[in-house]
Amino acid sequence: EAQVTQNPRYLITVTGKKLTVTCSQNMNHEYMSWYRQDPGLGLRQIYYSMNVEVTDKGDVPEGYKVSRKEKRNFPLILESPSPNQTSLYFCASSTEYIPNNEQFFGPGTRLTVL
Amino acid sequence: QKEVEQDPGPLSVPEGAIVSLNCTYSNSAFQYFMWYRQYSRKGPELLMYTYSSGNKEDGRFTAQVDKSSKYISLFIRDSQPSDSATYLCAMSARGNQFYFGTGTSLTVIP
Known about the structure:
heterodimer; A: seven-stranded mixed beta sheet
């Protein structure tokens, strides 16, 4: 089944404890992206990658890191999480960066930073 | 000023009604316009895509883009209870970086 998977789905952590949210797609997509979704602010893009070893900042990259060493994986790293990073995170992928190729979203990761 | 503005609703309509959802934007460089649907506890899924100005129809859904007014719309005809979801508009200038509206929550009452 073609899909984007994220792990973990739920995470409660404490301020300053490094964490990684994994994202993997099995559709051989070049483009991958991370978003966070917050009430009243909507979906905001954190980072995106147009191919392996190519990453760029989105609208809200502060406090996050990403890497794209393999085509199928695009992990999101929070080196020192803070409470303002409590959010619902989505990973997405598509065949190309041209948006008429649909972005497929993962199921989301709900992160709480205490 | 936000790049994309969208009325959050909530919007509640009877089954069979015509629904109109709208977004405005400030960046005149946007040329790719999308509508996503998001069910509760799920990721968004693409509903409609339009390039530049004009209309696009797909079944009960019609997307309109008016670049001169920086205004986009999604119309849903003969709305069904299964259309109950949050609708997100999204835009992009070059097809790599995307800006989403806050979403409009829609409930269609049987």
